[in-house]
Amino acid sequence: ELKVEQNPLFLSMQEGKNYTIYCNYSTTSDRLYWYRQDPGKSLESLFVLLSNGAVKQEGRLMASLDTKARLSTLHITAAVHDLSATYFCAVEETSGSRLTFGEGTQLTVNP
Amino acid sequence: KAGVTQTPRYLIKTRGQQVTLSCSPISGHRSVSWYQQTPGQGLQFLFEYFSETQRNKGNFPGRFSGRQFSNSRSEMNVSTLELGDSALYLCASSLDPTYNEQFFGPGTRLTVL
Q1: In the structure, what pLDDT confidence band is assigned to residue B1 with cuts at 50, 70 and 90?
Q2: Which of B43, B44, B101 is opposite residue A45, by nearest beta carbon?
Q3: DSSP states of B4-51 as a string?
């Protein structure tokens, strides 16, 4: 059974600081997603990582995937308040379609 | 291009009742998956449909069922509702099941009293 673990689960940071969220998963997969969720809202797709060594950047967020280590990271650079949300990683099983989600990281960026 | 739509957005039911939720995928998408989100269990896969066939099912009791129509629209049904069924139910669509990005709808918030 595929397991996905995120850490930290809660992250409170000051504006302007950098931090990294980690996502570990237990079985082979080369397709990983990062989503953002605002309170009471649905999931917004941030990144799709398709292969080992994939790195994608959008604004202050950068995601990477190491399939050998079964690890993905979401790096936040110079955080701003608008980044406050819950971030989920999700791993797609090699048979396709079914996503297994991490527990989510609740990020709060304080002024 | 319109996104995934789900109806209704909010629903209040009482224990023992049944409920049907609807999902219309993005035009051209033929695969629909359903997920349940609760504070305690997080996001959990319910089932996936493609070409009117259930391809995959998560670890949920038989009270949870679904179907897909020829136009790719999908419904899920929960019978004999329990308090623990209160959740946000999210539908996601993709082009087909083979390794395609899933796009999520706004969800249906179900409250069971």
Answers
A1: low
A2: B101
A3: -EEE-SEEEE-TT--EEEEEEPPTT--EEEEEEEETTTEEEEEEEEET
